[in-house]
Amino acid sequence: MIKILDVKNTDREQIFFRGQTGATPEIEQAVDDILADVRQNGDRAVLAYCEKFDGVRLDRLQVTQAEIDEAYAQADPDFIADLKKAAANITKFHEKQIRNNFVITDEDGIVLGQRVLPIEKVGLYIPGGTAPLFSSVLMSAIPAKLAGVSRIVMVTPPDRKTGCINPAVLTAAKIAGVTDIYKIGGAQAIAALAYGTESVPKVDKIVGPGNIFVATAKRKVYGLVDIDMIAGPSDILVIADSTAVPRHVAADMLSQAEHDKLATAVLVCDSMALAQAVSDELERQIPLLPRQEIARASIENNGKIIVAGDLFEGVAIANEIAPEHLELAVEDPFQWLYAIRNAGSVFLGKNCPEALGDYFAGPNHTLPTLGTARFSSPLSVDEFVKRSSFIYYTRDALGRAKDSIINLAEREQLHGHANSVAVRFEEDS
Question: Is position 325 annotated as part of the catalytic site?
């Protein structure tokens, strides 16, 4: 049964506990070993880990075009149609994020500007351990495509029985414009993308969520390549008032609890009666889920219902927790929207279950977890571009700035900097 915590009688540590990452020294060492092995032995190491961890012996890592085309051809037409609707919504939203170059020519003899350039090669990690997350393919590949990334390399674990990639994932990849697909999961997939192997190209950036081994590997290769974020277990926080429907609130909490035993589902409300009603609903609904064992562990170990004095206090608690997903299941959600400072994505009103954002609405579902919404943002087109500035000065323009530059450089005791300007005007003295 979920914990019900009354703010008046509960210490801050319990109220603001955000969940666990699952990291251990043993995992750190295991990931170090995998990274070193793949870096040294390439495909041979990756194939060995596929057999060890995924239970499949592969002849090749790359998915063929024939496999992709066959998956698409055999897909349910309604599924393809729904994927394309979702892809259109995701595209429409992310098109608004595209940045433009700019040039400044306000002063004579000076041209300043910024170029926005796509990252050339990006790796997408798509989890596949407990569910075929084809939605993550759309959410990762579409922003990359809009940014102009020329090579989008997807890695995802193969099925333990067949050694193949789930057809739904391949279908989504075809729709989203993925260029290369490899049958690799876990830390070994991150290593292959970061270092490159005989089969897998070395990429410039790795994005996408994964388990603790994947998250740890991403953290360890950062600097050699860029990454989007260190994703922890998923979480949801629902703020509800007396008009909320307990059945709906419980269902929304379970939509995240079924992800992972380490996932966190939180309700913040201003009524003990609502808290008890939602608790009762959770107990009724958990046994109905196919993934009830996962959901039960998440709810009992990490879930909680926080009863605040009022919604103002509830919003303050939510801002401190900084959830990945925040639902405002209240009468007038727009009244509270701009009071929310820390959340990956905000779902407004009683007709916006978190699943709407996971699959269809358009905003990205790869979001900051474990309180990192305090300083981090959802995956976006920005993650797939880099910016480069440029400067042009005529000799006359440099002459006007010469004394200021020399003065500033000498005050930093960088006389070589100062001289690089002064030397250009020696013949004038």
Answer: yes
